Amino acid sequence: MMDSNMTPHHFTAQVYYEDTDHSGVVYHANYLKFFERAREDIMGTKVLADMWHKHEIGFAIYKINIGYHEGAIFGDRLDIRTTWKKEGHYRIIFFHEAWRPDGKKAAVTCTLELVCLGPNKKLMPIPDLDFLKSKE
Amino acid sequence: MMDSNMTPHHFTAQVYYEDTDHSGVVYHANYLKFFERAREDIMGTKVLADMWHKHEIGFAIYKINIGYHEGAIFGDRLDIRTTWKKEGHYRIIFFHEAWRPDGKKAAVTCTLELVCLGPNKKLMPIPDLDFLKSKE
Amino acid sequence: MMDSNMTPHHFTAQVYYEDTDHSGVVYHANYLKFFERAREDIMGTKVLADMWHKHEIGFAIYKINIGYHEGAIFGDRLDIRTTWKKEGHYRIIFFHEAWRPDGKKAAVTCTLELVCLGPNKKLMPIPDLDFLKSKE
Amino acid sequence: MMDSNMTPHHFTAQVYYEDTDHSGVVYHANYLKFFERAREDIMGTKVLADMWHKHEIGFAIYKINIGYHEGAIFGDRLDIRTTWKKEGHYRIIFFHEAWRPDGKKAAVTCTLELVCLGPNKKLMPIPDLDFLKSKE
């Protein structure tokens, strides 16, 4: 068992007016929203909603590194490619890329570390969730 | 020909962390984003992107009335139901509703008037777009 | 005693990148954020934070009417002018205007009705808060 | 001449409803908005607006590293402390910290690299702006 998944998960994020700024491209902070939507698609929204509403358990972001290489524009359907791995008992690392249609390389790349917080925001080991199980 | 469409168009807007606020429900302004995504789905994003990037023509919002009846929460998949009609040569009116899963009535309702602006933000007649053609 | 205040309250909202969209002006939904910041300035953030964190009481928006007359741009320092009145025991109505620097008329106007929700989102009478006391 | 400024610049960012999410703290991406407001305060909004509207020159973000240590809540007035330095002809590096009221250490820390883009998004040397001049 590997506790990781290195075959990219694909999620489509469409660029709407709300995502752009007056320079004509997507506002830099908004890629973090696209990446979070992808993670929720991977983890399962119902799983996350139940963890939160029934057990007060949620994921918190601990660290983010982002690189911006090209600006996405209104109308782009971005392909968000994500791989991830569990590290130790307390951390999950996600590797996100945002690809523009017909892009030759990723427009934006991101490495993001998550930890898990229980009631009263107390750090707890990552629960044994389905998306962390090896696909092999 | 009717220049209107009274059979609701359906669009799904999933409620993510980004959409909620600390009171536990969707932040009031964010429903306007869901409604805009639905309008772009209706009008065709490629049509809108081409209008904007090639001809500097875009739609601008002139008036909005919103009623809030129930708060949507994280994990909800909202059904955005939209009808619309053209009024005169210069206005399109959209009627949006956001329905929660298993909702007995609309959680949020919205009437929104659009006008069309050409280069230099000059008011112009609504172009003859496909989504305005009667479905009959 | 009047339970209203018809001398406008002034609040400055600066337009940042985050507020604009690729059409070059402020994204329509973002004026609602400016108006909310003004209301919190009027009501007192500490009062609101205490109501929420200690008593689980908060204000919820019930209805909004907005009119858009001119687009604000990056760098504008908007003057948000607000008056308000209490109506009956359960509603407060706010009248907001966003003025651009050197504007001849309001760029955006908004009428907004608030109600008060206690624990479990139960409707309750508007509390006897300082900002509702007549200034006369 | 140093092309750097290591005495922190202070900027206050108030946490409003719009900034929080349903977990009760500020949504992770929104600290990037606070940091950008601080940078615009440092650079001078009028300078930036003129660069953009008159010369089509703007700053673009190239890289960001963020660390999250504590969550800010509704009503917090965050002290955004910023230092910066120019590196070579093409890069400015900003060091941002968000401090909660009575915080013992920074709640969020961020290192951010900016480059300068001229018309057609072409990379250009950093202009000789006032905020880059040594204060000594």
TrEMBL record, chains A, B, C, D:
Gene3D superfamilies: Hotdog Thioesterase (3.10.129.10). It comes from the Bacteria. The keyword Hydrolase applies. GO terms for molecular function: fatty acyl-CoA hydrolase activity. InterPro entries: 4-hydroxybenzoyl-CoA_TE, HB-CoA_thioesterase_AS, HotDog_dom_sf, YbgC/YbaW. Pfam families: 4HBT_2. Signal peptide: none annotated. Keywords: Hydrolase. SUPFAM superfamilies: Thioesterase/thiol ester dehydrase-isomerase (SSF54637). NCBIfam families: YbgC/FadM family acyl-CoA thioesterase. PANTHER family: 4-HYDROXYBENZOYL-COA THIOESTERASE FAMILY MEMBER, ACYL-COA THIOESTER HYDROLASE YBGC. Belongs to the 4-hydroxybenzoyl-CoA thioesterase family. This is Tol-pal system-associated acyl-CoA thioesterase. It comes from Desulfobacula phenolica.
